[in-house]
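User: Some background: our group keeps a shared notebook of sequences we're curious about, and every so often someone picks one and asks for a predicted structure to add to the entry. Today it's my turn. The entry only has the sequence so far, pasted here. Could you supply the structure so I can complete it?
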Amino acid sequence: MCGIVGIQLREPELERELGSLLTQMVGQVAARGPDSAGFGVYGDQRDTPPGWACVSLLGPTAAAVEASADFAGIGPVRVRTSLDTTVVSAPLPVADLVRLTRTAFGTAVLAGYGTSLSVVKGVGHPEDLARRMDLRSATGWQGLAHTRMATESAVTTAHCHPFSVGPDLCLVHNGSFANHATIRRELEAQGVCFDSDNDSEVGARFVAQQLAAGADLEEALRVLGERFDGFYTLLVTTADGFAVARDSIACKPALVAEGPGWVAMASEFRAFGCLPGLASARVFEPEPDSVYVWKR
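Assistant: Of course. Here's the predicted structure to add to the notebook entry:
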């Protein structure tokens, strides 16, 4: 079943409220996916101050990162553990931080990376996870969350959404891809590696490949719609993009609200109840076989 929420803020004065808004939205869809959850936040100064890059790791502890010789001598490094995720930030180009991380912890799952994005995932009830990671204190201009009810792969942190497999890219998914094994084999033949057997990761890797090849976010999701069979509602975010896509049947729930200074998406209307100015917002159901993109 799964639950999705996300919001992009256009007014700087709202950015201090991002964590509070996301926390309240997650609470309204927690029953749709009570076994695990994941959160992606853009612009949180705790993790991504200007000029810094951030990586989110599954496996290494904060103590292991701090003790690693590979991280010695590169300048200030921020390390924090949140749920089952270790978030590492440093004043480096993101490609350099990713390379350093892979050298130090080659078997670790890279759960997210970028210059504006931090990702945290964990197993447990979404509301408890949001409290434990102190989501309410997060600031920034954009965020999304996924509450998971596993149907086709294990309940582990590596199988949680969002799947962030490109710089500042997040994908969350409600539904299932029927032909994901076929596309996985195609991607693997091209050298793409996977961290899980989750069908949603295949979608994320496909989108990341399209973006790396020069497609914009709308085009990448339209090509996904042409290649992937199944039922899906997707929310996909980048450093400046917020996109919703649905399959041709649109049996998985989705609503969008465009309010004063923000756009939001959720699996249920009640998740919008905390948003400022909702009474004057335009609320609509995205059309089947359609892609909607908003730019920051």
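Suggested note for the entry: The mean pLDDT is 95. Residues 3-46+124-295 form a domain with the Glutamine Phosphoribosylpyrophosphate, subunit 1, domain 1 fold (CATH 3.60.20.10).
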